[in-house]
Amino acid sequence: MASLHFRKRNRKTGFHYSDPGSYFITICVKMFDGVLSNIDADFNLKLNPYGKIIDNKIRSVDKIFRDTEIIEYVIMPDHVHILMNIYPNNHIDCTDGNGDGDGSDRINPVTTNTNTHTNQQSFKYKLSIPSIISWIKGSSSFEINKTIYFRWQRSYYDKIIRHNEEFIKVKNYIINNPQSWITRRSHL
Q1: pLDDT digit string, tens, across residues 35-45
Q2: Residue 46: in which H helix or E strand, if any?
C-alpha cells in the first residue's frame, strides 16, 4: 500500500486566526511573474490591470469584514504582502501613548467607542484571516479570469506579529520590498 503524502500545516496549531492582533500575510501567484505589477530601475512600482483589481479588493477588506484594518500592503509582480489588524468586537484606538504615528502603537490596542461598524448584520463573512484571504483570492481571481487564466498558489504564508519591534520591521519590509526586488533580481 502506497503511503499518502501529508501536506505540512501552515497555520499555528491551536491558534485562532480570528483573535485580535496584527498579522503579516503573503499570497503568491501560481506560475506567473509580472502579472500583477512592474518595478522599474528607480524602484517605482506600477500596477498592471490585474494588480489594480487586487488593489481594489484589498482596499475593500474593512468594508467586507468588520473590525479589520489594512495597515500596509504591496502588490509585487508575483506576490502580495499585507500587514493587517483584527480588532476586538469594539473598534479600538490603537495607541501605546507615544503618538509617533509609525504604526507600532497598533500592537497594544485600547478599547474605545469609535466603532464605525456598528451594524454587524451588514457583514457577510466570518471574521478570520483564512476568510479574509479566501475572499481576496476568490474575488480577485473571479475578476481576473474574465480576461486571462489566473491562479493563486494554494495556500498563503502568515506570521502572527507579537511585538512593536516586529511590527515596525514587517511594515518597513513591505514598504521597501520593491527596492529589495530590484536588488535581488540584479544579483541573479
Answers
A1: 899 998 888 99
A2: strand 45-47
Question: Are the C-beta atoms of residues 29 and 137 closer than 8 Å to each other?
Answer: no
Separation of alpha carbons 166 and 139, rounded Å? 30
> Which position has the grid cell 490596542?
109
Q: Is 7 exposed, middle or buried (0-12, 13-18, 19+ CB in 10 A)?
A: exposed
Dihedral, CA of residue 105, residue 74, residue 43 and residue 149, to nearest 10: 180
Question: Residue written as cell 484589498?
Answer: 58
Which residue is associated with the grid cell 482596499? 59
Chunk the chain into consecutive blocks of 10 residues (it has 188) and report each block's average pLDDT, rounded to whole numbers. Answer: 55 63 94 85 91 96 90 96 85 40 40 38 67 94 94 90 94 93 62
Tell me the β-bridge partners of 29.
Answer: 152
d(CA 71, CA 52): 18
Amino acid at the residue 55: D
Residue whose C-alpha is closest to residue 134's, from 113, 152, 117: 152
Residue 36 contacts residue 48 (beta carbons within 8 Å):
yes
Cell of 8: 505540512
Instruction: Match 500596509 to its residue by C-alpha cell.
Output: 72
Say what the pTM is: 0.75
Buried b / exposed e over 94-124, threshold 16 CB at 10 Å, is: beeeeeeeebbbbbebeeeeebebeeeeeee
